[in-house]
């Protein structure tokens, strides 16, 4: 039998040690939660994580059976708690999971993750992160007396994905680990780390923070989740950081340029950019010329269209959020590549809000544009909206923010209209929220 393609387990020492700040649990192998699985010849990514999710919610692998499966979930309403106090508290280690993606030890898996430059497709990694985040939350909310979970857990937000200065080789195993780090009444924050094998050691590649929400068995209303027990000062620190993250998101939303005017400093920035584009040969606000090594923002756009087939559905028969992230990322990468004139490398992903589910059969319109640049950095915004086949009404589903780095300095991007000026400032805010700008390394290769 081939080596397991994925391994899920509880706390363990050595090669699969948990991330800093997490309490160690039992080392008894008999008590470890291990699933020996392998990737089948199927287009579905990380096959057995999604198979486990289908088992947890009772979803069918056959599209024609999805209506019947959803009808059966109505019977699970009786398992839903009427208040959070009814639910048993859980520890961080109860939801801890490790997943092994054996690109090195199982070469037949590589092609799905391979770029033409012999690096790893980051869009595929986004899909894996999304599935893992949902599974982690189901581990936290598991009801031992029920065969299936009465909860519908969905991704609400990708808060932040930060990259480390490590290469991603398609010829070395990758490991994911994660756990619930904070809970509210109906929401959970999930921390996920990704490592790649270098020699005999797994080295960190990225840190990701997801926010998941629990809904009832029919995915129609909110549902309560288990409270969290903190067992060490390190876990208290993680929980406190979760509270701070929530507060930061509320503040960022309340000061959105869709709600409030730009700050005085931002207004000055936009006015100075405007003045720098006035034609000195004329005394007119209408005559605009680009400064040297600059591009009008309107000329940095790329668009794409996807037909949402049943193959890309999630366990609740909506379009899989990881698929949406992959398609948005790949378009964003192409936009940065076209703009900068060289192959860009992803530095950070943040503030991906899932505003509306995408139904199977929808037309998915993706629009990407560069909204801010600085030296070698390119900030790209991707807007997605859907239209049903029955009508032509378009509705926004997601807005994605990606920070890329080019091998060489890129042109400045200039807004021409007030709306583009707001996009520029929003891009600048997202860029400035990046914790620590990284220095480009030749081994730092994370592509679509």
UniProtKB/TrEMBL annotation:
GO terms for cellular component: mitochondrion. GO terms for molecular function: carboxylic ester hydrolase activity; fatty acyl-CoA hydrolase activity. CDD domains: BFIT_BACH. PROSITE patterns: HOTDOG_ACOT (PS51770). Keywords: Hydrolase, Mitochondrion, Repeat, Serine esterase, Transit peptide. It is found in: Mitochondrion. Residues 95-218, 298-410 form the HotDog ACOT-type domain. One of its GO terms (biological process) is acyl-CoA metabolic process. Coiled coil: none annotated. Signal peptide: none annotated. InterPro entries: HOTDOG_ACOT, HotDog_dom_sf. Its main location: mitochondrion. Belongs to the acyl coenzyme A hydrolase family. This is Acyl-coenzyme A thioesterase 9, mitochondrial isoform X1. The gene is ACOT9.
